[in-house]
């Protein structure tokens, strides 16, 4: 479980909120961040509060069975709870709205995942990055739509909504969002410059074998 104290975790959540806002991956009250304190409780960002200006006292507390202990946690908390309930290794979840990553799901509704086979670092650092079918924000369906991809995938695009990453630390979850948006921007430039090309099939297979021997974390 997390080695954070509740206060340390709350302060780190506020820092991650600022980073996401500064990078343009969240606007105003969008997105949500959570950290698992232990088997029964998590801390989470509040609903309706700008994530770039969070204070320690804004951070909410709730149980893994969705009992609110303090504050008004995000209305999208069922999505976070689905991750924690399905993935024992999950210590943190970050849901952000990185623009280019989200745009891929809008412009290419035919895709079921980001075209990772174009970029070696995406295969090695993240494996496959699925595009989770759309669900109305704040509904139980958001969590249900994630479950087919858990625990194998730690980084996902949420169709027409944003992205979600979970990790064994808050750093890992944040870094995964950074990894995703960088890849999405690169692929977008390639598409605009003439189209996507993939690595040779045998090289993709080798890279996937290398990924399989790694820790499973998003790097």
Description of the structure:
- There is one protein chain.
- This protein has 7 helices and 8 strands; from the N terminus they run H-E-E-E-E-H-E-H-H-E-H-E-E-H-H.
- The protein is of the alpha+beta class and about 220 residues long.
- The longest helix is centred in the last third of the chain and has 24 residues.
Topology, please?
Blueprint: H1 6-22, E1 32-36, E2 41-44, E3 60-63, E4 68-70, H2 77-86, E5 92-96, H3 99-107, H4 120-126, E6 131-132, H5 140-146, E7 155-158, E8 162-167, H6 170-193, H7 201-212
Helix pairs in contact: 2-5, 3-6, 4-7
H-E order: HEEEEHEHHEHEEHH
Percent strand equals 15-25%
Radius of gyration: 17 Å
Shape: globular
Note the gap between the termini.
Answer: 20 Å
- The SS-based structural class is alpha+beta
Q: Which strands sit side by side, in order, in the main sheet?
A: 4-3-2-1-5-8-7-6
How many DSSP-defined strands?
8
Task: Please report the number of helical segments.
Answer: 7
Helix content: 25-40%
- How much is the average pLDDT? 96
Which sheet architecture does the biggest sheet show?
8 strands, mixed
Low-confidence stretches: none
């Amino acid at each position: 479980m997390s080695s954070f104290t509740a206060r340390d975790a709350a302060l780190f959540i506020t820092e991650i909120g600022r980073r996401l806002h500064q990078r343009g991956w969240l606007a105003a009250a969008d997105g949500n961040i959570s950290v698992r304190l232990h088997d029964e409780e998590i801390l989470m960002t509040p609903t309706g509060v700008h994530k770039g200006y969070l204070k320690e006292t804004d951070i909410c507390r709730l149980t893994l069975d969705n009992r609110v202990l303090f504050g008004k946690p995000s209305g999208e908390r069922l999505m976070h709870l689905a991750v924690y309930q399905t993935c024992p290794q999950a210590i943190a979840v970050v849901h952000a709205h990185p623009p280019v990553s989200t745009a891929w799901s809008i412009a290419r509704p035919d895709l079921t995942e980001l075209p990772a086979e174009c970029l070696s670092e995406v295969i090695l650092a993240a494996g496959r990055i699925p595009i989770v079918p759309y669900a109305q924000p704040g509904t139980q369906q958001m969590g249900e739509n994630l479950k087919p991809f858990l625990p194998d995938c730690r980084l996902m695009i949420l169709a027409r909504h944003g992205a979600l990453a979970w990790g064994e630390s808050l750093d890992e979850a944040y870094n995964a969002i950074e990894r995703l948006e960088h890849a999405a921007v690169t692929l977008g430039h390639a598409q605009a410059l003439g189209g996507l090309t993939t690595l040779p099939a045998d090289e993709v297979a080798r890279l996937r074998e290398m990924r399989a021997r790694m820790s499973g974390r998003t790097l």
